[in-house]
User: Which sequence fits this backbone?
């Protein structure tokens, strides 16, 4: 026989510098079955909030030393805390309710307290707390499920890829042309599925905050060169010109040119593997959705004389443009293109995760990625990364 755990009792922290007020509110809420904790000043309140993680805080505004506004501000600035509703209590008609709500309080009530009104506001804020907690719990369960699922899926997919590769290379014996064609099709499908699983896993690593970037100086010319070498066979297969141009704002030079009349830098601080992932995705998409013409990668560096002095924050950006002559993107699709699971109407549209992941990676580098496109006129994806 299963025994259900007892229902959770809501914990309320009451903060007031008046012992009489503390006793009154404690007696009122205690009779309703809530677990009560008390604090007589702001400093004690902050310590108890971190220690006890109450479900609701009743907070007097006018207190010596640290008033209720400051306590509210510090609680809301502490990103390590879960959401805790704050009900401000004031004895003054002219107290700035607007100020309290603007800095993060959820509701207010005036003294002398009306018992029925107090209980109603407490119940309302606790309902809000329970709703948010339940939603966050469901999100964590979903993320945990997807993470476990993608991990579990990768193992058989990697094994299948290796076995199919062995069959295709005739490691187990001669294979007829028809079987070679079948193995080719199975390998492509398996690789596409493995790519989707890997992308989904990376998405949830970023969303869960457990993705750690390995930052170091990265020359974007070198990364682009590697990406072009990897994707050139795909472009050649589709008879597309895949070219790279390095420029600054006023001049252009070939990628392999040793000296330019105006030296510029194309180096940023970033995670080389993640930036490689973004460029592979965007350039690969450009090739995938372009039937004829070209795909051009334009790298716009920053002139050396424009770099900030050491110790100062840079407002200069290295820009990468991926320009294609493909089918273009509908205006209504452009608005949601970088959202998760948003697929365009093109018949070759994928899972809707690649562009979302690319945006997350670029934003984690303090950069931005945008798109400009016209139907039947091609597209330009623009990445900006701070120097």
Assistant:
């Amino acid at each position: 026989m299963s025994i259900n755990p007892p229902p959770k009792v809501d914990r309320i922290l009451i903060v007031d510098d008046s012992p009489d007020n503390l006793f009154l509110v404690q007696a009122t809420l205690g009779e309703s079955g809530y677990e009560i904790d008390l604090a007589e000043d702001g400093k004690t309140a902050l310590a108890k909030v971190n220690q006890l993680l109450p479900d609701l805080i009743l907070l007097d505004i006018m207190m010596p030393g640290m008033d209720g506004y400051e306590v509210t501000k510090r609680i809301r600035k502490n990103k390590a805390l879960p959401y805790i509703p704050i009900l401000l209590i004031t004895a003054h008609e002219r107290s700035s309710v607007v100020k309290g709500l603007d800095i993060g309080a959820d509701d207010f009530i005036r003294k002398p307290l009306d018992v029925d009104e107090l209980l109603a506001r407490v119940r309302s804020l606790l309902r809000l707390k329970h709703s948010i907690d339940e939603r966050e719990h469901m999100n964590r369960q979903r993320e945990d499920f997807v993470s476990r699922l993608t991990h579990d899926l990768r193992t058989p997919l990697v094994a299948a890829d290796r076995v199919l590769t062995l069959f295709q290379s005739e490691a187990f014996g001669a294979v007829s042309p028809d079987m070679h064609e079948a193995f080719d099709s199975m390998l492509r499908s398996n690789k596409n599925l493995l790519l989707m699983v890997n992308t989904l896993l990376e998405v949830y690593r970023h969303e869960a905050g457990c993705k750690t970037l390995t930052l170091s100086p990265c020359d974007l010319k070198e990364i682009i060169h590697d990406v072009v070498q990897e994707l050139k066979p795909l472009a050649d297969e589709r008879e597309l010109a895949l070219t790279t141009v390095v420029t600054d704002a006023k001049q252009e030079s070939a990628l392999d040119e040793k000296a330019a009349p105006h030296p510029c830098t194309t180096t940023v601080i970033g995670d080389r593997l993640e930036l490689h992932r973004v460029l592979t995705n965007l350039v690969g998409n450009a090739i995938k959705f372009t039937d004829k013409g070209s795909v051009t990668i334009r790298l716009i560096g920053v002139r050396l004389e424009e770099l900030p002095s050491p110790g100062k924050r840079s407002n200069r950006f290295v820009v990468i443009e991926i320009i294609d002559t493909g089918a273009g993107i509908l205006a209504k699709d452009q608005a949601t293109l970088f959202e998760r699971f948003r697929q365009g109407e093109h018949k070759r549209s994928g899972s809707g995760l690649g562009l979302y992941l690319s945006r997350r990676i670029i934003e984690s580098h303090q950069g931005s990625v945008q798109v400009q496109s016209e139907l039947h006129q091609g597209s330009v994806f623009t990445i900006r990364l701070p120097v």
Notes: The chain has three domains: 11-113, 138-207, 216-386. The CA atoms of residues 14 and 380 lie 57 Å apart. Residues 138-207 form one domain.
